[in-house]
Amino acid sequence: MKKSAFMVVFLCICTALLIGCGGGEKKNSAGSNEIKELKIAFSPYQDAETIKTAVGPLRSMLQAKLKEKGFPVGTVTISVGTSYSAVGEALSAGSADAGFVSGATYVLFDKETDVLLTALRQGLSKDTTDLKSWNNGEPEKFTDDLVQHYRSVLVTGPSVKGKALLEKVVSGGKPSWEELNALTWAVMSPASASGYQYPSLFLKKEYGKTIADLAHVVQAESYTTSMARLASGQADIAAAFSHIRIRNEKNWQRKLGGTDTIWKQTGIIGVTDKIYNDTVCVSKTSKVMQDQKFRKAFGEALIEIGKTKEGIDALKILGHKGYDWADAKNYEDERRVQRELKRK
């Protein structure tokens, strides 16, 4: 009995010492929860170096937030894909743990990725398919409202063909397919919602054709390249997100080659249906993202960062004003768009 009592007391003391030292918790938070590297890929919304420089501060912000949540991260690696599809492929392969991608890219790769967050954007003063509103001489402006959608527009430039087609639209006419087919189009990759998918659906609804049917199409690496081609006259029309002119207002003459303001040298001849905002997706094959607790912490970290001034500054280049939890059902319209295009 004495020996048994001694053993009970000894075990109790050992247990108390272990709890008091916090050995188990310390090891867990600094050991098994430690992430050596978190790899984040960004779609080419702008040229790679511009994006890397702008979002660079996100590295330390994410590290600080994730550490608070019990997941210390050694290195946050940021990359910019050569195309929208390249980011989707990186997520599919697990060479990227998370990616900032369009809804179209998510839907194309939804078997290998999960949508975690949806981006919030500033609303636009013009949110209509009425072309008179877009060409009334008043520049578009951002509003203070945060919205979950945007649109795609067909922007004509200062080329002879571009100006002629805009004049027809402003006077109330509708371009014929032959007129559109005679233009040189600057578009993004087929994975881009505003730079390809929705403009294609617009053409299909209006003319029974898609971008794939056009005779003169040039695929741009980024919207910056696309707008530069428009400004120089290498392209007559460009497919882009609805706030493209605001984004390029300052650089139109300074860097892109415009000879007057972007508002005087461009016009809108087509506006698409609403497009659900960009996403933050995570890879199903990434070992890091297989931990559901880490996924939740990562999502929370970005939501919290998006509510700070520093975070908003870093996200400005993406046009994002914060994030909210995403629901895969919100992208059913995008799935419909892709199904429609496949029926061509």
How would you explain this protein's 3D organization?
With 344 residues, this protein is of the alpha/beta class. The chain has two domains: 36-120 and 278-330, D-Maltodextrin-Binding Protein, domain 2, CATH 3.40.190.10; 123-276, Periplasmic binding protein-like II (D-Maltodextrin-Binding Protein, domain 2, 3-Layer(aba) Sandwich). The protein is 45% helix and 20% strand. It has 17 helices and 15 strands. The protein has helices at 2-21, 23-32, 48-55, 58-68, 84-93, 103-108, 131-134, 160-170, 177-181, 193-207, 223-232, 244-247, 251-254, 262-265, 292-305, 309-315, 332-342, and strands spanning 35-42, 73-80, 98-101, 113-119, 121-124, 142-147, 149-150, 152-156, 185-187, 217-219, 237-241, 267-271, 275-276, 279-283, 323-325. The strands form four sheets. The protein has a six-stranded mixed beta sheet, with helices on both faces. Strand 9, helix 10 and strand 10 form a beta-alpha-beta unit. It starts with a helix and ends with a helix. The model is unreliable at 1-31 (pLDDT under 50).
